[in-house]
Design a protein that fits this description.
Elements lengths: L3 E3 L35 E3 L2 H4 L6 H25 L1 H54 L4 H11 L4 E4 L4 E3 H17 L8 E4 L4 H11 L5 E3 L6 H10 L4 E5 L3 H8 L7 E5 L11 H4 L3 E3 H6 L18 E6 L9 E5 H14 L7 E4 L6 H14 L2 E4 L8 H7 L4 E5 L2 H6 L14 E5 L6 H8 L3 E6 L8 E2 L9 E2 L10 E4 L25 E6 L15 H5 L2 E3 L7 E11 L4 E7 L3 E4 L2 E4 H11 L5 E6 L8 E7 L7 H11 L8 E5 L13 H6 L9 E5 L5 E3 L2 H8 L6
Parallel strand pairs: 3-13, 5-7, 6-10, 7-8, 8-9, 12-13, 12-14, 14-15, 15-16, 27-28
Antiparallel strand pairs: 1-2, 3-4, 10-11, 16-17, 18-23, 19-20, 20-22, 21-22, 22-23, 24-25, 26-27, 28-29, 29-30
Helix pairs in contact: 2-3, 3-11, 4-12, 5-6, 7-8, 11-12
Length: about 725
């Protein structure tokens, strides 16, 4: 197994979770000049070089015989010389044993990582106690929220550009929702989908439904047509609540939905009278606003069903970067664990004001940030759509103390012109996933951020980790002292398929230091920290579970991401399995090339993928750059690439996109681009190809025909 990796200046980025970096845990900042980055090199990690040195038989024999021999000697001394001599000998035996096995280096690693591990251990204990306390009392999210309402009813819970809702208002609206749907016959276990933009009513709606045990699939507001229909049907919805702005999207598929699916339209107050949808006039949908106005707001009606601690709360859909969205199951206990986990690990305070411009239908915004309001009584500032230029101006305006980012947001923000609010804010910490190590130092320096909490995890997974000490590029860590505390591992796997590699016993093997492998988390049924809830679709869930990992019969969630751990246990993202392609006998990591190319192109969106050339072995690299105004100078870009990347890692084709397709969490879709390839008859965007001298030239239909006929070699 071999993979390409940037070893000087950090590694690449991912659209799925976080960024990789070199094994030192710190990435060097690129030059402020976009086309003059620091010099980097890419090396190929040979499996023979990645494995720890093979110890001699004598060294291994010495290690294993030291403890019993020294213990026997200590026993003899204790018998003949007395207790004090014996205890001193036992102490010397312990020290000697540790020096030989595991060795003096262990003491050094233990010394430098103990502060980090201690902070994390105490946080983990607090999380477990918090979750266990709710489980013992069989409490759900609504119970904890109502306790916060009773304690601080007039404190602001959710703030946006146009709304300021107190805890009391949020609770009253949620009670109205619960009473409306209870009166309509909905009960515990029913499923009601929600298609609504970021606003206070979004949270109040699913919270109200949860008070009567109804499960709420949180549907991506970007979906249309078949994807939207799929999300409603795969979630097994019996009803759908949608905002007036999504009326046309819903009506387009209404006739194809199952007949039992009830439709409820929610209107903005400002256009409540003018919106007269076709669906309402035809009797397909009910007007929810009117129903809410007449419903009781003080409490949920007697006789309504109630959700238990381990019941399903919401479904959160995957982004659909590689296909149709899958509905991941989030229970009340899982919501507790995610929100409390990041709260205690990163040291959030109840009086913090959180800023999240992320969509509330995903875990990052809807659980990690919004959970701070519902469970801990904090104020959360939301925004309908992310604005790079408005990020820190919003933080200053609303006096936010913690900001959230995801995907490429940090790069967009960094690319904005300098402004007075860059440092005139109270943000002490930002947290999220996907902050590239290449821009991490510039970001914290420009905006005066004291702490970055980079995390990694999948909505459906149980292998979630966090970087709690702002180590540049790290997405989390594994304790080198007590790795058993949090059973996650990196196992050897095929970098192309993600399939675990097994030994002669049919079991998986852990990777060594700096050896890339697939990240897995041990599954323990009944434990909210280790449980794998998977998707609504059980067949899809089974694909994310690997069996017989380290012993026969055990199970683990397999992430599909290639990670690498350094000597101190810091973890760095390397690539998504399947995103690595082979060219000129070498493996090329798309995420690492994307990170370098984005810097060279002035922090623009870049997608790198492999394309097939007829009668040519492997796949050639192709980069799609979002540059609608054509600011990038191809000649200068080619020269910079020649200095930054080895020949095999440089894209052989360039495509300058006039538009780009992003998911709701700012992930880039590459499947369609890869399918279109470099054929100018199919691709309408401007295309270039690399000539033998490395200079990029326009790829015309005539040139394409020469490539197909193998008259042009790469």
């Amino acid at each position: 197994m071999c993979t390409a990796g940037v070893v000087d200046g950090g590694a690449g980025a991912t659209t799925g979770g976080a960024d990789g970096a070199d094994n030192g845990g710190a990435a060097h900042a690129p030059s402020s000049t976009a086309l003059n980055p620091p010099q980097v090199s890419i090396s190929i990690d040979d499996p023979t070089n990645l494995k720890p040195p093979v110890k001699s038989n004598f060294r291994r024999y010495l290690q294993w015989m030291t403890a019993p021999v020294m213990t026997a000697i200590s026993g003899l001394i204790l018998y003949y010389q007395g207790p004090w001599y014996g205890l001193a000998s036992l102490y010397a035996t312990l020290i000697f044993t540790l020096l030989v096995r595991p060795g003096w280096r262990w003491f050094y690693i233990a010394a430098v990582t103990t502060p980090r591990d201690t902070v994390a251990l105490f946080a983990y204990i607090r999380v477990l106690l918090f979750v266990k306390r709710q489980e013992r009392k069989n409490l759900n999210i609504g119970d904890i929220f109502e306790a916060n309402v009773a304690r601080q009813p007039d404190k602001l819970a959710i703030v946006s550009e146009s709304q300021q809702w107190t805890f009391r208002q949020l609770n009253e609206h949620s009670n109205r929702v619960a009473n409306v749907f209870h009166s309509h016959g909905y009960k515990k276990g029913d499923v009601v989908g929600l298609l609504l933009e970021n606003r206070a009513e979004f949270v109040a709606t699913w919270l109200g439904l949860s008070k009567i045990g109804v499960i709420t699939p949180l549907i991506n507001t970007n979906l249309r047509g078949a994807s939207l229909q799929h999300s409603i049907t795969v979630g097994q919805c019996t009803a759908l609540i949608y905002g007036a702005s999504f009326r046309s999207a819903v009506m387009d598929i209404a006739k194809d939905l199952p007949a039992h699916v009830g439709l409820y339209q929610f209107n903005d107050e400002s256009n409540q009278e003018v919106v007269a949808s076709e669906g309402l006039s035809q009797g397909l949908a009910q007007q929810l606003n009117g129903l809410l106005e007449t419903a009781a707001k003080d409490k949920v009606a007697a006789g309504a069903s109630r959700a238990d601690h381990h019941d399903k709360l919401v479904y959160i859909y995957t982004s659909g970067t590689t296909g149709l969205p899958k509905a991941a199951v989030i229970t009340h206990s899982r919501y507790f664990f995610i929100a409390a986990g990041i709260h205690y690990t990163l040291g959030f305070k109840d009086q913090d004001v959180f800023y999240t411009p992320l969509p509330l239908y995903h875990t990052a915004g809807g659980v990690m940030s919004m959970g701070q309001a519902l469970l801990f009584g904090s104020t959360v500032v939301i925004r309908k759509k992310f604005s790079a230029s408005g990020y820190f101006s919003d933080c200053a305006r609303f006096q936010c103390t913690v900001g959230q980012y995801i995907g490429e947001m940090a790069r967009y923000i960094l690319a904005t012109p300098s402004a007075p609010h860059d440092r005139s804010h109270q943000v002490r910490m930002v947290f999220g996933n996907g902050l590239r190590p290449q821009i991490w130092p510039q970001f914290v320096e420009r905006f005066g951020i004291r702490k970055v909490g980079e995390f990694y995890g999948a909505t459906e997974g149980n292998a979630n980790i966090m970087n709690n000490d702002s180590t540049v590029g790290a997405i989390g860590f594994i304790s080198r002292i007590l790795p058993q505390i949090y059973p996650i591992s990196i196992i050897k796997a095929d970098p192309h398929t993600g399939e675990p590699l097994r030994n002669s016993k049919g079991l998986c093997e852990r990777c060594g230091v700096d050896e890339p492998g697939v990240f897995v988390g041990k599954i323990v049924r009944g434990n909210p920290c280790r449980e794998f809830l998977g998707y609504v679709d059980q067949k899809a869930s089974s694909k994310k579970v690997v069996h017989d990992v380290f012993s026969k019969g055990d199970m683990a969630f397999i992430s599909g991401d290639l990670l690498v751990a350094d000597e101190r246990g810091y973890l760095y993202f390397r690539d998504r399995t399947g995103d690595t392609f082979r060219w000129k006998g070498e493996n090329v990591s798309t995420s690492e090339v994307e990170a370098q190319l984005s810097n060279l192109a002035g922090y623009k969106d870049v997608i790198v993928y492999g394309v097939s050339i007829p009668n040519t072995e492997g796949r050639a690299g192709m980069a799609a750059i979002y540059d609608p105004t054509r600011e990038v100078k191809v000649t200068e870009l080619g020269e910079a690439l020649a200095k930054s990347l080895p020949n095999y890692a440089r894209p052989q084709f360039l495509r300058f996109l006039r538009r780009i397709d992003l998911t709701g969490t700012f992930k880039l879709r590459k499947v369609e681009l890869q399918q279109q390839g470099f054929n100018p008859a199919i691709v309408e965007d401007e295309l270039f190809y690399a000539q033998p001298d490395g200079v990029y030239a326009p790829l015309t239909p005539a040139v394409y025909e020469r490539i197909v006929r193998n008259e042009l070699r790469f």
